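Incident log, entry 3
Record: Helix-turn-helix domain-containing protein (447 residues)
Problem: checksum mismatch between cached and fresh output.
Input:
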Amino acid sequence: MGERDEPEVVGRRVQRLRVERGLTQRQLAEPTYTPAYVSTLEAGRVRPSDEALKHIAERLGVDFEELATGRPARLVTDLRLRLTEAQRALATGAAEEAALQYTGLLAEAQEHGLMEEQATALLGLGECGIDTGDLDTALRCFERAEAALAHAPLPARVPALRGRAVAHYLAGELRYAVYLLESTLDELNRGGLHDPDALLLLYASVIGPYMDMGAQARAAQAAEFALALAPQVGDPALVARMHRSVARTLLAEGRLAEADSSLAKASELYRQLQLRTELANCHWMRGYVYAQNGELERAEDELKQAQAMLSAQRAALYSSQVAVELADVLHRRGKSEEAAALLHTVLGDLSPERGAVHSAGAHRLLGIIAEDARDTEAAEEHYVRALSLLERAGAAGDLADLCRMLGDLLRRTGRVEAALDAYRTGLGHRTAPGTTTLGPAPAQPPL
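Fresh output:
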């Protein structure tokens, strides 16, 4: 039933509550136990079983948890209700408001030694950091959440592991992000731990890093797995709101177990609501595939759907990344001015520490648009900026092609030696389409 106080502390608590209620040791013990057992328990000379404490708690008219830990059960349920409220704020895009709520709730959970609630608050703070772009804070929170859940089963630790991976990915550390996600997927699937929600979260999160590393085949497969695993709920926000309201009513009536049950359902639905951000990645991937196949109109539709889903969640970093892909499609459809305007907006939202690969993608595309307009000076400036960002992030999938483009531009303007240097840099990063040096793909789920 979880951690409890030491036997002598529990014993003193039992004795105090028994005396307050005017009960004898015999009245407390019967019909299942003896007065001698109660005497030994109150003296702290025996560690009572869960069954014994449940019996005594019922006779004393208190909750088992309050008797075992000294914490009123209502306090814990109320804390869980407020954690669900913070989760609602985060799921509906109010990340800053949610961060304030989670910070206060974390302090309360720490004060009362509630490890599970601490982990929930830390995960929430980590997600707030991801949404607002505060990646250092996000990473620290996910690491602390993972430590708090160290003894929990792997599926329960997946949100913290995935959070760490996403923070590393957005900071430009692609290979380590993929390592974290793939090794967790492999452990889940090989170990028979086929938790659909955990798998969906991991597969949806690994699509972006795969794409940036040039592993399109793995990205496409991950997208298919994610879409197959996606939970089917009509309107999770609406159902969650109902469960939250029910929980408040039950809590007011003192029906704590039923309130906890409703809160668990509400919390799960809000978590599914947050998965919309992850599922937007799948539309993003489909848009990319359509673009590669030359189906530009379908690609534009998919990418705009992904961007709308992400903007609704106020997921600024992800939204900016999709915007780069969308700008590429717009340019290829002859809408270069619209594409350039979108890219300049994106560059205002990104930085080398926040979305380096997509900042590079934006500069690369602006360079192409500048070349089309015969503005070679601006094109070269954008290509050089993109090259610097990609080298720092280790995104080999795009780097070789960019070096070729820069080399061609330099050669056309008569700078042959500089062009050769660019070509040599590109050869050092040459990668076959759809491959990386990541090793074997992780084991697959039994779909």
